[in-house]
Amino acid sequence: MDSKLKIVHTESHREWGGQERRVFSECLWMSRKGHHVVVIAPARSPLYERAGEHGWETHAVAFNKFGMIRDACFLRKLLRTMRPDVLNTHGNLDSKVGLCAAWGLEIPCVIRTRHSTPAVSNSWYNRLLYRKLCHHIFTTADCITRQIMDDLDIPHDRIATIPSGIDCPTGLMDRRQARHRLASEIGVESDSAFIGFVGRLSGEKGLHVLIDAFARIEDQLPRHHLVIVGEGGIFEALQEQIREQKNENRVHLLGYRDDPWPYFRAFDCHVLASSEFEGVPQAMLQAMFAGCPVIGTRAGGIPDIVIDRETGLLVPPDNPQRLSEAILKTIQEPKDAEKRAARARHSVWENHTIDAMGEKILRVYRLQVTEQAENP
Predict the structure, then answer these.
(1) Which residue in 273, 199, 184, 263 sits closest to 235, CA to CA?
(2) Is the whole-model pTM more than 0.85?
(3) How many CA atoms are closer than 13 Å to the CA of 164, on its beta-carbon side?
(4) 308 shares a domain with 225
(5) For residue 229, which phi and psi values (nearest 5 degrees)?
(6) Most buried of 170, 216, 252, 284 (most Cβ within 10 A)?
(7) C-beta of residue 241 within 8 angstroms of C-beta of residue 247
(8) Helix 68-82 with 92-102: angle, nearest 10 deg
(9) How many CB atoms within 10 Å of residue 317?
């Protein structure tokens, strides 16, 4: 089946975190394959604006909980006119609005993607959304799939784990050059070394634990600095924590950076200390592809990609002592860390590229569209 599909994505979130990046990556891959991509999201949200910059069809819907009926009526009219082959909803609010709006319009393939790991309650409206109003469910991690199957009694053939895939660069910056570049950026000695994090600054990422873990071992690592790249709601709280520890010279909050790859190349290890809510983190996949040793927690979908002592190190969540030990092990045993990093890079290349993700998604889209055409 070589025909091109009209694929509509809805997303109610207004941030630019892993979920929104995942939606953007799906759209990017499908667009590259010649499919017609439509993004329906709040006006001026990062996803909406980036979709417009790429020339994709966009429609602004507020997805405000106080205007759900209005949004559903508008979206139903839009979908009836548009007649898409695929409707894929992503956020909680746009899924409620979008799946209800699509009911009865005979859209061949309707997908509900669940990105985050908090449990989906067995409520009447979740049973309606997940059992009745969509054809298939995508999740980004096995733990999400298991919870939905068990608690909502979803058949295994209606749900698929499709981890996020990354768009791998064709070339990476030399490590020494990346370290010198980062040292110059933050104004430290050129022979400095770095431990890092790249991602959204939110409470569940365990950044306060990472800062505490670094404080425990900084005297043993006199050349190392902790570098945190990203923006989010806890930026000021992290600043205050760093000030209280009188550690402004060793811990650096850089804010958002559009290109993360030079930072992964500069780090001696990338640390994701999530507490519990985590899908398969794209920043961790990027670090692994960049050849950067990684440390994660046994939370959410992290163990799906980080195999302890094989492709990285895993520690319990909310445990700064164990985290500090893992950081020391990574830095003080560089040959073992390099072997883990090499295996991690190979794993990402084999299983977690944007092509691998896109092909899995497109296979489900096409199968469902074909089945609907043959059995109207």
Answers:
(1) 199
(2) yes
(3) 29
(4) yes
(5) -110, 120
(6) 284
(7) no
(8) 50
(9) 20
